[in-house]
Design brief:
Elements lengths: L9 H5 L6 H13 L21 E3 L2 H4 L4 E6 L10 H13 L9 E5 L3 H13 L2 E7 L4 H9 L3 E5 L6 H11 L5 E3 L7 H17 L10 E4 L9 H8 L4 E7 L4 H4 L26 E5 L1 H13 L1 H7 L3 H7 L5 H16 L7 E6 L7 H10 L5 H13 L6 E3 L3 H15 L6 H6 L3 H22 L2
Parallel strand pairs: 2-10, 3-4, 3-6, 4-5, 7-8, 7-10, 8-9
Antiparallel strand pairs: 1-2, 9-11
Helix pairs in contact: 4-5, 4-8, 5-6, 8-9, 8-19, 11-12, 11-14, 11-16, 12-16
Length: 453
C-alpha cells in the first residue's frame, strides 16, 4: 500500500506556528513556487506567515453601518478557497479510520464548485484518484480548476440549486466498493474543521477591533460547514447571533422556497445533515442579483467607490478578494448590523469563501443580461445594494416552534437517504454536537502518531 502523506492536525491548522519550523518554512516556500507539492497541506490555515488571521475590515463608507464588518479571506488558502480545509479534514479522518486507502479507493466529491476544487487539489497532493460530481451549469472557471488538478468531472443536470441530484448520483456511484465519498453535506469532519479552525480564527480576528467581541456571524449555507463556526463563537460570546443567509429566490430554510438562483456555492434546496439548527438564530434572504451586481461594483467600480468616500487605497485592497457568495455574506452582515441596531463598538464577522479568480465568466454573463454597466449604473447599484441595505426578509428562528420547522426540513431531506429518525432526533440535543466536536482531540493524536511512523 502506498504511504499516505499525512498533513497537519486540526490544532496545527488553527495554530500554524505550532508546526515544526522546518516544515513550516518549506510549506510557505512551496506555496509560492510549487502549488502541487504535498508540503502545501501545511498551508491549510486562515493565518498568514506572521500568524495573523487573513481578514479585511470593510470601509464604513461602503457598508453604511457604524458596526465593524470583519471578513475572513478564504482566497489565500491553497487552491484558492477555504473549502480545501474540510476536503482535507474529511479525507484525513477517513485515512485515520482505515476507510480510505491510497491505491485502492477513488474519492467522490459531491459539490457545486469550491469543495470539488478542494477535493481535486487534496487528492492530487495525497495520491488519490478523484471524481467530482456537480451540476452542469456552474462557472467555467470551476470546471477548469478541477480538471487542472487532475480530477474527473461527473456532471448532473441543473444549476446551483439542484445539488440534490449530485447527492443522488453520489449514492449511486458509491455502490461500487472502490469509491469513497467525501460527503460534505453529511460527514462531520466538515463541521469539526469549521467549528475548531474557522470559529476560533474568527474569535481571534476581532481582537483589538471595537469591543473585541462578536455580536453577529453571518454565513450562507451550502454544505452548512462554515456556519459551524458559529457554534464556537457562541461558546465564547453567548450573546452572538448566528445568521444563515439564503438567496431570496431559493428560501428553503426560511419558508420552503426552492427556486433557481445565481449565488454559486449556497442555497442548495435543503437543510444539510451537518447543520446544527440549535444555534441558528435567524435566516435572512439576499437577492441573488444583488450579490452579482455587488461583485461588479467591488471589482470594477473603484472610481464609484471613491465617490462614496472609500479611499483609493481601500478600494484597491478590496480588488480580487471576493466571489459572489462572499458578497452575499457581506450583504447579509450589513443587513443584520442594521436589523440588530449595532453600533461602533460592535463586530459582525463573515466569510469570503474564495476570490474573484473563478468568477470572470459570471461578470461576463452580467454584461450580457444588462444593457448598460457604465459608472452611472454602478453608482446606482453601489448605493442601492450596499448603502440602502434594508432589514426586510429576516426570519427569527430562536423559538422552539420555528426550530421545529427546520427539523422537519432536515427530516424531509435526509430520511430518504437512509438516516434514521432516532439519529435525526439525537441531532436536536446539544450533547450530540459536543460529542462530535470532541473528536478533534482524538483525530489530532492519531494524525500525529501516523505521521511519525
Amino acid at each position: 500500500m502506498a504511504r499516505i502523506p499525512f498533513g497537519p492536525t486540526y490544532y496545527e491548522m488553527l495554530h500554524p506556528e505550532a508546526i515544526d519550523p522546518e516544515i513550516r518554512e518549506k510549506a510557505l516556500k512551496a506555496k509560492e513556487t510549487n502549488e502541487l507539492d504535498p508540503i502545501n497541506l501545511f498551508n491549510i490555515t486562515w493565518k498568514n506567515e506572521k500568524g495573523n488571521v487573513r481578514k479585511i475590515i470593510l470601509p464604513k463608507a461602503l457598508t453604511g453601518t457604524e458596526a465593524n464588518i470583519v471578513v475572513l479571506l478564504g482566497t489565500y488558502f491553497p487552491s484558492g478557497s477555504h473549502k480545501v480545509g474540510p476536503a482535507y479534514s474529511t479525507l484525513i479522518e477517513g485515512c485515520v479510520d482505515g476507510d480510505i486507502l491510497p491505491g485502492e479507493h477513488t474519492i467522490l466529491g459531491p459539490s457545486t464548485g469550491n469543495f470539488g476544487i478542494g477535493v481535486s487539489y487534496i487528492c492530487n497532493l495525497m495520491g488519490y484518484e478523484a471524481v467530482v460530481i456537480m451540476p452542469d451549469n456552474m462557472s467555467k472557471e470551476r470546471y477548469d480548476r478541477i480538471q487542472k488538478y487532475g480530477a474527473k468531472l461527473d456532471l448532473t443536470p441543473g444549476t446551483e440549486s439542484d445539488v440534490i441530484l449530485t447527492l443522488e448520483r453520489t449514492y449511486e456511484l458509491k455502490k461500487d466498493p472502490k469509491n469513497r465519498p467525501l460527503a460534505q453535506f453529511e460527514l462531520m469532519p466538515n463541521y469539526r474543521f469549521h467549528r475548531f479552525v474557522t470559529g476560533n480564527s474568527a474569535i481571534e480576528a476581532v481582537k483589538g477591533i471595537g469591543n473585541g467581541r462578536i455580536a453577529c456571524f453571518t454565513s450562507a449555507p451550502g454544505s452548512a460547514g462554515t456556519i459551524a463556526a458559529g457554534d464556537q463563537i457562541k461558546s465564547v460570546f453567548p450573546e452572538a447571533k448566528i445568521v444563515a443567509l439564503e438567496p431570496y429566490e431559493c428560501s428553503t430554510l426560511a419558508d420552503g422556497g426552492r427556486g433557481q438562483h445565481r449565488i454559486e456555492g449556497i442555497g442548495d434546496k435543503m437543510c444539510t445533515l451537518i447543520h446544527n439548527i440549535n444555534t441558528t438564530d435567524f435566516v435572512a434572504l439576499i437577492p441573488d442579483d444583488d450579490a452579482v451586481r455587488g461583485l461588479k461594483v467591488i471589482q470594477e467600480g473603484a472610481e464609484v467607490l471613491e465617490e462614496l468616500g472609500v479611499t483609493s487605497e481601500q478600494a484597491a485592497a478590496l480588488h480580487n478578494l471576493f466571489g459572489v457568495s462572499g458578497i452575499c455574506n457581506i450583504l447579509g452582515a450589513i443587513k443584520m448590523a442594521h436589523y440588530l441596531k449595532l453600533g461602533p463598538d460592535d463586530n459582525v464577522v463573515t466569510i469570503a469563501t474564495d476570490g474573484f479568480d473563478r468568477y470572470p465568466s459570471v461578470l461576463e454573463d452580467l454584461e450580457r443580461r444588462y444593457l448598460e454597466t457604465e459608472n452611472f449604473v454602478l453608482r446606482r447599484w453601489a448605493r442601492d445594494i450596499f448603502l440602502k441595505a434594508n432589514t426586510e426578509n429576516v426570519y427569527d428562528f430562536r423559538s422552539s416552534k420555528a426550530k421545529e420547522q427546520l427539523y422537519k426540513q432536515k427530516e424531509k431531506d435526509w430520511l430518504p437517504f437512509g438516516y434514521s429518525q432516532d439519529y435525526l432526533d439525537e441531532m436536536k440535543t446539544k450533547e450530540f454536537w459536543e460529542k462530535e466536536f470532541a473528536k478533534v482531540e482524538y483525530y489530532d493524536r492519531e494524525i500525529a502518531k501516523l505521521r511519525n511512523e
